[in-house]
Amino acid sequence: MSAPGAAAAGGSGRSGATADWGGFEDNMQGGGSAVIDMENMDDTSGSSFEDMGEMHQRMKEEEEEEEEGEAGAAEEEDGEFLGMKGLRGQLGRQVADQMWQVGKRQASRAFSLYANIDILRPYFDVEPVQVRARLLESMIPVKMINFPQKIAGELYGPLMLVLTLVAILLHGMKTSDTIIREGTLMGTAIGTCFGYWLGVSSFIYFLAYLCNAQITMVQMLSLLGYGLFGHCITLFVTYNIHFHSLFYIFWLGVGGLSTLRMVAVLVSRTVGHTQRLILCGTLAALHMLFLLYLHFAYHKVVEGILDTLEGPNMPPFQRVARDIPVVSNAVLNTTAKAIALTL
Amino acid sequence: FAGLADVSISEDIPVEGEITVPVGSHSPDEDYSTLDEPVKDTIMRDLKAVGKKFVHVMYPKKSSALLRDWDLWGPLVLCVSLALMLQGGSADSKDDGGPQFAEVFVIIWFGAVVITLNSKLLGGTISFFQSLCVLGYCVLPLTVAMLVCRLVLLAGSGTVSFIIRLIVVIAMFAWSTLASTAFLADSQPPNRKALVVYPIFLFYFVISWMILTFTPQ
């Protein structure tokens, strides 16, 4: 760094002047007063980085002029003159340096405050046993709705369930040969699942705020996340065994159970009939409709609508049973048929 | 500011100030020394590092070389080759080629980031890029599986080839998961290993699924 060098050069003009910002010693020799003559400073000195280059350029030009002039007698004068200029340059550089340091400190502080993932650390403090227990509990509706039920504010289980749902959706979309025109298959799956989890949680949290329900955002995220367990099971089964009646049984049974659990927990935390009705009705409707949407949106749909232009003998909208992979699906179908027949 | 060093000073004026040589002044010299070497040396050095890490993945021992000098070249190369090999598969039209390439990228990098964040939040001691590095390198067995699948599909696409592909993909998936678990799960407290292993399992399962359901045109 040339700052020490410049300080040394600046110090030549007035001995005892320090390189510290904000402290100028009084014993300035060589024609200068203790007070810096501010009217010599132009507007750009020490104010910004861009002007540093300009100042440096000017100093260089002045040095070159001085070198061309007399060397000996004008040495002292040059020293002084350069001292003033050197001081100004040093001042400017230090101000810019200080501003840079302060800015950097502020930015790193802000970054460590907001981008600190340690904020989320308490929500991931779980044991595998606890996760398993909560998964099973999410299918069991509670009976006691007069007493506020405890909801664990945990985000690991819900996050894993959302990712599992994304994986299952991807599998369903691939086997149904869904063609996404703009965007990727994976982007759609991720967007759908995360959008549902975060969006519906926020919406229900907002409604809960309006209806005076006692629930925090993390608890709502956790509740809805665990409610997706039923969705995962249903979709996993029905994407592989393709029977509409089986899907409706699962929709009502499994989906209904997990919805009932969420509704019961919310009811236990809300007072007043109207509020309970609004909150739980909305949640139940959204949850069940989401499962319905996930199943039907990714059926294998022969692209008849677009093909009618080229193939007039193709029926416009047709559902075709999936046959990928051939072996396992046939086995599963016959097994399911056999079970259905025996029941 | 280097021009100021040429300032001439009169001898009878004492020069004051601090002469401290900042530590960083050595690094320009080092940079110059690696800048001057031939390009072949630079590339070979990086390639050797990547190759060494590939060997570590294929034979997962308890070594820390993969973790210590992490780099993301290997994962990038693997990601690109896997995405290229997955091109031109499934349905019909020309606009399926694009999304599949981006799809593989999104899955691999988004999945790796999520797993890393998850393991950090669960109290892991591994850093962000080290974890990304390990997860990326452990995609190698699956890339090999993809290669084998493509070769098998060249021969035919009946039930036999499906069974062969299934076995190969399952084996490579298990290898990937075990390899990355060997590196990553050690940084966790012992009773929480299952919590870290599950997302890794899911991640490689999704990639394996994409490989298995690949049908060429």
UniProtKB/TrEMBL annotation, chain A:
One GO cellular component, as annotated: Golgi apparatus
**Alphabetical keyword list:** Cell membrane, Cytoplasm, Differentiation, Glycoprotein, Golgi apparatus, Membrane, Transmembrane, Transmembrane helix
Could you tell me the membrane topology recorded for this protein? Answer: Multi-pass membrane protein
- Composition bias of kind Acidic residues appears in 62-80
Task: Kindly report the protein's main subcellular placement as a broad class.
Answer: membrane
Q: Which InterPro entries match?
A: tRNA_Mod/Golgi_Maint
Which chain regions cross the lipid bilayer? 155-173, 185-211, 223-242, 248-268, 277-298
Q: Where in the cell is it found?
A: Cell membrane; Cytoplasm; Golgi apparatus, cis-Golgi network membrane
Please provide the Gene Ontology terms (biological process) for this protein.
cell differentiation
In residue numbers, the region (Disordered) covers: 1-80
Q: What does this protein do?
A: Involved in the maintenance of the Golgi structure. May play a role in hematopoiesis.
Q: Which family does it belong to?
A: Belongs to the YIP1 family.
Name the record gives this protein: Protein YIPF3
TrEMBL record, chain B:
GO CC annotation, single? Golgi membrane
Start and end residues of each Yip1 domain: 59-210
| Key words of the record | Membrane, Transmembrane, Transmembrane helix
One GO term of the biological process aspect? endoplasmic reticulum to Golgi vesicle-mediated transport
> Where does the protein end up?
Golgi apparatus membrane; Membrane
Family of the protein in this entry: Belongs to the YIP1 family.
Kindly provide the name given to this protein in its UniProt entry: Protein YIPF
What organism is the protein native to?
A: Rostratula benghalensis (greater painted-snipe)
